């Protein structure tokens, strides 16, 4: 092929009728491109050198279905290793807590409206009206018989309806917060705004607010702060757009709403247990609705914001000299929320959440590419499991293979541990140890001990693998 027909030379050759100015500009651009390319090479070389010296971090990949506790576990790691960074994000988490509160209130308001509609409808038509199931809540069989629909339906008074009207401004707060968390142009925004276009009221039934794990959403909330560090003094309390203002104004009403026995009956009737759902803060409204509320570490751990993308944690091994012996991906921390035995997937109401977790575990365990990766299993949300069993929800009712064994925490938890262990034993391509912990990752104290142990285990296992220790 003649030289001038070579596609590469053609692209690289200067344009045939180039002016002197064009030529200067081209040379300048080429020099700049070379400078950037050299800088990248330099950085890669530095990285390579650092890695050779043993500065390569250990990587832990966090896996598990949605709401299993991956982000919460990351927050625990952060709280242990970079407390300062964790605390500077308080202003951003404040917004998430407020969003969670408003969401819970919205669920209650919708439940009230549904029950009201049931009373207003004619008896023959009413059973159809309350077939609502929240993702995450128990699939409800129709609680009333078709012949007497309104008999056992809680009766609301005019005061309840007034209370509901007074709380409606909170829905605006929700919109403001969602808009802030998901700027236009991001996929997440499209997903959330769809409901506004179609005019269907947003609710738990629809999409959750999502942030990408790579996206620095916390930066969006600098507005609420005067200085870089988001500590208590740095929140701009005079910002007229601060959602805390309406939350404070509605504080008393929210507290009354949640404490109201009839409202509690309405929720019970609809089989909604808000206290078991993520982002539950209604039990501490008096604190959260104060004008200058700042979330505690605990609040931040309990705040719920869905993440899109990979959750990964990196840490530096203390004995840096060992580090070069570690593989690229060192461990997988798998979270199975064992409290979800009575829930279905948000994306597919036909699938039980616990079953989904078990299947996911099986696919990870049996993956030949991961046969030499350390797997650590967290059977998480043990506190919610205990609460559900105590509230009389029957494990065996949903997990049929459990039969009629005792409906207590000891039996159910050890049954589940055995199940996960059995899968691990039968489906691992090579034998490997089964590391399993019962966790409540919202409990930072207990979790910090477990995470220290996990890090130890991973490092030890890797060293054993590299035959560096016996
Ligand atoms: N009570 C209780 N709540 C928990 C526990 N673990 C996580 N949560 C809460 O459950 C919610 C979901 O946890 P996340 O860490 O956001 O779950 P995730 O796995 O990151 O979920 P995605 O981002 O959707 O994939 C949050 O509100 C947490 O505070 C637990 O052990 N007990
Ligand atoms: Mg997450």
Automatic annotation (TrEMBL):
Comp. bias intervals (Low complexity): 131-149
Keywords: GTP-binding, Magnesium, Metal-binding, Nucleotide-binding, Transducer
InterPro entries in alphabetical order: Gprotein_alpha_su (IPR001019), GproteinA_insert (IPR011025), P-loop_NTPase (IPR027417)
UniProt region (Disordered), positions on chain: 1-22, 123-154
PANTHER family: GTP-BINDING PROTEIN ALPHA SUBUNIT, GUANINE NUCLEOTIDE-BINDING PROTEIN SUBUNIT ALPHA HOMOLOG
Annotated GO MF terms: G protein-coupled receptor binding; G-protein beta/gamma-subunit complex binding; GTP binding; GTPase activity; metal ion binding
Residues given in the record as Mg(2+) binding sites: 307
One example of a Gene Ontology biological process annotation: adenylate cyclase-modulating G protein-coupled receptor signaling pathway
GO cellular component annotations of the record: cytoplasm; heterotrimeric G-protein complex
Protein known as: Guanine nucleotide-binding protein alpha-4 subunit
Superkingdom: Eukaryota
SMART domains (alphabetical): G_alpha (SM00275)
Binding site for GTP: 301-307, 380-383
């Amino acid at each position: 092929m003649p030289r001038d027909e070579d596609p590469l030379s053609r692209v690289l050759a200067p344009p045939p009728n180039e002016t002197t100015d064009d030529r200067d500009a081209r040379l300048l651009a080429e020099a700049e491109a070379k400078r950037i390319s050299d800088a990248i090479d330099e950085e890669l070389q530095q990285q390579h050198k650092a890695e050779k010296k043993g500065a390569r971090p250990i990587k832990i990949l966090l896996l598990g279905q949605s709401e299993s506790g991956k982000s919460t576990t990351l927050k625990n790691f952060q709280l242990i290793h970079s407390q300062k960074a964790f605390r500077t994000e308080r202003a951003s988490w404040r917004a998430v807590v407020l969003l969670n509160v408003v969401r819970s209130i919205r669920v209650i308001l919708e439940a009230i409206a549904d029950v009201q509609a049931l009373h207003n409808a004619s008896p023959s038509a009413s059973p159809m009206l309350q077939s609502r199931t929240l993702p995450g809540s128990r699939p409800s069989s129709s609680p009333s018989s078709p012949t007497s629909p309104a008999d056992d339906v809680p009766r609301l008074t005019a005061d309840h309806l007034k209370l509901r009207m007074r709380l409606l401004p909170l829905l605006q707060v929700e919109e403001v917060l969602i808009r802030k968390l998901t700027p236009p142009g991001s996929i997440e925004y499209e997903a959330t705004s769809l409901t506004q276009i179609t005019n269907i009221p947003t609710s738990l039934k629809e999409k959750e607010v999502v942030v990408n794990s790579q996206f620095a959403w916390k930066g969006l909330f600098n507005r609420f702060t005067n200085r870089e560090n988001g500590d208590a003094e740095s929140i701009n309390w005079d910002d007229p757009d601060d959602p805390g203002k309406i939350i404070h104004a509605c504080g008393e009403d929210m507290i009354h709403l949640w404490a109201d026995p009839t409202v509690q009956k309405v929720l019970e009737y609809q089989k909604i247990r808000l206290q078991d759902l993520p982002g539950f803060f209604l039990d501490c409204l008096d604190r959260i609705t104060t004008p200058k509320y700042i979330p505690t570490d605990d609040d931040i751990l309990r705040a719920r914001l869905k993440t899109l993308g990979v959750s990964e944690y990196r840490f530096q091994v203390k004995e840096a000299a060992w580090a070069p012996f570690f593989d690229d991906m060192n461990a997988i921390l798998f979270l199975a929320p064992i409290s979800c035995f009575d829930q279905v997937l948000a994306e597919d109401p036909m699938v039980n959440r616990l079953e989904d977790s078990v299947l996911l575990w099986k696919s990870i365990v049996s993956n030949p590419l991961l046969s030499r990766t350390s797997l650590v299993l967290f059977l998480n949300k043990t506190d919610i499991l205990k609460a559900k069993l105590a509230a009389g929800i029957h494990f065996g009712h949903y997990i049929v293979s459990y039969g009629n064994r005792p409906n207590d925490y000891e039996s159910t938890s050890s049954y589940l541990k055995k199940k996960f262990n059995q899968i691990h034993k039968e489906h691992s391509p090579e034998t490997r140890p089964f590391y399993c912990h019962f966790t409540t990752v919202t409990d930072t104290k207990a979790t910090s001990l477990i995470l220290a142990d996990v890090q130890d285990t991973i490092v030890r296992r890797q060293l054993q693998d590299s035959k560096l220790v016996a």
